Every structure is written in structure tokens, then in C-alpha cells.
Amino acid sequence: MHTNQTLKSYRGRFAPSPSGELHFGSLLAAMASYADARAHQGQWLLRIDDIDQVRVVPDSEQHIINSLEQAGFEWDEPVYYQSQHIADYQQALGNLTAGGLIYPCYCSRKQIKALARDNIYPGICRETAIPDESADEYALRIRVPEQNLSFNDLIQGHYCQQLDKEVGDFIIFRRDKVFTYQLAIVVDEYLAGISHVIRGHDLISSTPRQMFLQQQLGFATPRYGHIPLAVTPDNLKLSKLSHAKKVTTDLTTLVLAARILGQAVLKAEDYQHQQDFWKHLFQIWQLKQVPKMEKIEIMY
Ligand code: GLU
């Protein structure tokens, strides 16, 4: 696993999963990460989180890329695909295993549900050794310490989680032989030299897990900022799963997104071209203006 990047310069990213069209909620995350990178004269990368091939919706990756292009986003490097980095995830898993932190888990969901408190894995397989060869199917979990992990979110402020009490030993490699999001993205951020992760609030509770993996793998921890999650008035997450509408990419939509992000942009008709909007947004962008809220209701 090689990376030439250091975290000295600003490198941000947007990392959609190709499980549907780009919707308004993901436009907010794309815009916030892009504008913050450009306001810091930083680079901004596009990553397609396609590790979980079962969830990939055919053509959605191309739709997302087309929508981003139409909206005027410009990424600085070729698109990064998780599916091309399986060997890197394998290597990271090998390092964690060598560190004695990984164990096989044979429990079914039903068993866990029956025994778990608050959905936290009760450690049934904790003392099981990884078999050299086995026909049985198992997942691989990582043992978490009794430790508080906290960080200073660039938007939400202080955030703290006690991994063993609030999350428990979590899965790194699934029974169906897929690396999990948590492991994959920690490796991805490292390989791409990402210094700043600006994303939706639904992922704030994953951050301590990612920090824990970074510590175990010897990777630097990026700065994190979590923007409010766009929800419908009946509190449904505007995600691809709830069949949110494909976002339009006209100036009115871009201006609305920037306003929701708390930025003092002009009216859509005051910008002649899309590029004038972006140029202005980069000049005035202030992350501290993004509302410090978990959710934000969108009538869209
Ligand atoms: N691919 C993830 C998603 O679309 C986001 C990953 C991240 O920003 O950390 O929900």
C-alpha cells in the first residue's frame, strides 16, 4: 500500500455510493466538501464507494458523475473506485490480524438479536481463533477497547463515543466476503491523502470507529465536519433508499443548496453563469456558517 501524500495540504473528497441517482442530500455533501476545499485552495477528489457490489445500481455511477458535471463540479484527479482497491483492504486486514485484534464470528443475526443489549455484539466469539481452513462461513470482527474516542467536529463541535459501550466489536469483513465500509474508507482516505472529510451527519457516529482503525493501522486522522442531514418534513432521510428525486443542476438549485448550508450567496438571477456562482461561493464560503444541526428539513 503506497501513498505519496501527506496531510499538510488540504485534500477533500466526495464519496457517493452508486446505489441511486444524485439527490439533494448528496448535493449538499458534495457542495460543502467542494467549496471548503476550494476556499482553502485545496484539492477535491471524487470517489465512488462501490465496495458493496450487491447494492450497486447499474448506471447510477454514470448518472451521479453526469449530474456532478452538469452542476459544474470539477475534480482534480481521475475518479477513485473502491472496487479497484481490494488488495489494499486485504493488506490492511492482514495488518490488523497480525496485531491480534481480529476474530471470526459465526453468529447469525438472529442469535445476536436474542443476546445483544442495544444491538451491541455481546462478544460471543471473542475468544475464537481464526481457522487455517474452514468450510464454515464466518465474518471477521475487530475487538474494540474500553475507551472513549472523541474529536472536535469542524461543524458540530465536540463529539465523544465509548466504542465498547456504544458500538461493540464491529465487522471488518462480512460473511459474504465483502470488506465493510468502515475498513474500506479508512484505507481509501489514507491512500488518497485526504486531510478533510466533510459529509452528512448520518456518518458522525461512524467516525470514532474510523479513528480507531486509523490508530491501529498507523494512519493519520483527517479533520472531520458533518453537515446536517437533509430530511423530508415527515423526517425521512433524503437518501437514494427512500427514492428521493434526482437532483436538478440549475442555478436555482445550487443557490438553494448553498443557502441551506448557511452561505450568503446572491439570488440565482444575479449570477450570469454557473461558474460565477461557484467562484463567488469559493470566495465567501465559511464552514462555521453551516448550521450546527443534526437534521434539516427540506421541502424539495
Ligand atoms: N459512500 C457513503 C454514502 O454514500 C459516504 C461515505 C463517506 O462520506 O464517508 O453514504
Polypeptide structure, described:
This protein has 300 residues and is of the alpha/beta class. Strands 1-2-3 form a 3-stranded parallel β-sheet, covered by helices on one side. Helices cover 32% and strands 17% of the residues. It has a single domain (11-297), classed as Rossmann fold (3-Layer(aba) Sandwich). The radius of gyration is 20 Å and the shape is elongated. The mean pLDDT is 93. The chain is built from 9 helices and 12 strands. Glutamic acid is lined by residues 15-17, 49, 185, 199, 203. Glutamic acid binds at residues 15-17, 49, 185, 199, 203.
How much is the radius of gyration in Å? 20 Å
Task: Indicate how many domains the architecture comprises.
Answer: 1
CATH topology: Rossmann fold
Q: How is the largest sheet built, in terms of strand order?
A: 1-2-3
Distance between the termini: 43 Å
Strand content: 15-25%
Number of strands: 12
Structural class: alpha/beta
The small-molecule ligands in this entry are: glutamic acid
Broad shape: elongated
Helix content class: 25-40%
Largest sheet: 3 strands, parallel
CATH architecture: 3-Layer(aba) Sandwich
Q: What is the overall pLDDT average?
A: 93
CATH class: Alpha Beta
Number of helices: 9
Low-confidence blocks of residues = none
Order of helices and strands: EHEHEHEHEEEHEHEHEEHHE
CATH H-level homologous superfamily name: HUPs
